[in-house]
Amino acid sequence: MSETLPEIYLARHGETAWSLTGQHTGLTDLPLTERGQRNARRLGERLAGLGFAKVFTSPLQRASRTGELAGFGVVAEVDRDLVEWNYGTYEGLRTVEIHAKRPGWDLFRDGCPEGESPNQVGARADRVVGRVRAIKGDVLIFSSGHFLRVLAARWLGLEPAVGRFFVLVTASLSALGYENYLSQPVIRLWDDTSHLDDESIQKGKT
């Protein structure tokens, strides 16, 4: 663990019934599937040997349970800013269903009616970035896909909408960090699935 150039590891939660079907899962508190639990344990194997000054998790069970199964349940602190995007009236819908009602809709540009806008999610991400940058040492975060994508964009100083380019598989591992100086934020690892089997990678793309 570097004292001068720490890394922020991002763990997307394991598979749920809705991530499997491609339904937008914001604040609906779904459990992990059996495969999701299995992959959370594999994520723990991938993280074995790494030390973290702090571990944070979304309060939603799909993230917190992933952290528990990965071996960090005792030390993980709940951070409410890590919850997934609030999809409002689009909760539980697939993108194709939303497009049938609103052609051309894009989450990262348009946000969700009665839910959050990209800037609102970006503001939460900014608070997380501020907190983790104040920590001396590496940090591990368990959260959800769309929020983590916005977090990566804001880490780099980019607009929340840039998160559309950072796809994440369930139970994947990523890492934010720096190049040579603390003034040079970079993505050091993205959507690593080396600990998952091929079937899990295919199923986890939504």
Protein model, in words:
- By secondary structure, the chain is an alpha/beta fold.
- The chain is built from eight helices and six strands.
- It has helices spanning 17-21, 34-47, 61-69, 95-101, 107-110, 118-133, 145-155, 198-203, and strands spanning 8-12, 54-57, 77-78, 139-143, 173-178, 185-192.
- It has a six-stranded mixed beta sheet.
- The longest helix has 16 residues, at 118-133.
- The radius of gyration is 16 Å and the shape is globular.
Question: How are the SSEs ordered, and which strands pair?
Answer:
Layout: E1 8-12, H1 17-21, H2 34-47, E2 54-57, H3 61-69, E3 77-78, H4 95-101, H5 107-110, H6 118-133, E4 139-143, H7 145-155, E5 173-178, E6 185-192, H8 198-203
Parallel strand pairs: 1-4, 2-3, 2-4
Antiparallel strand pairs: 1-5, 5-6
List its traits:
alpha/beta; 206 residues
Mean pLDDT: 95
Number of strands: 6
Q: Strand sequence of the main sheet, in spatial order?
A: 3-2-4-1-5-6
Percent in strands: 5-15%
The backbone outline, from C-alpha atoms, is: globular
Radius of gyration: 16 Å
Low-confidence stretches are none
Main pleated sheet: 6 strands, mixed
Q: What is the CA–CA distance across the termini?
A: 32 Å
Q: Count up the helices.
A: 8
Task: Produce a short descriptive summary.
The chain is of the alpha/beta class.
